[in-house]
Amino acid sequence: MTDFAPWLRPTLLGPFITLFGLVSVSHALLGGAADALLLAGHEFDTWLVAMLFAGMIASPIVVSLIVADVMLLAAKMRRLPTGFGAWLGSLLAPFALFFAWHLVGDHGETMLGAVLAFALPFPASALAIRFVLGRKP
Which residue ranges make up each domain of the chain? Predict the structure, then answer.
């Protein structure tokens, strides 16, 4: 593979598209759509802050997907995803992360437990989604 664009484009854009779409749709359905369109009031501010947080969650998802792809490629277990499979895996990666967070549950007894409960689902969900939806070499 000499052109990485068919792999990199969906990997970089997919999680952002999903999370920005979820934030925008939920904001429109739960209220504030008129204020957001008119750029008036505090509803636009809440949408903007939610988009900022969505971007802060999407960024480590993208990094985790790239690391998972490179690890699975180095282990010769999967090829770099391209085409529909790459888009599907990248668009579903935030849902895999939310599911992993749900499985981990609340481990807030210690600070280390809370940090691990937040951080470990990122690489675990990326590896799982790339392994399940990836193509064998």
Answer: 5-133
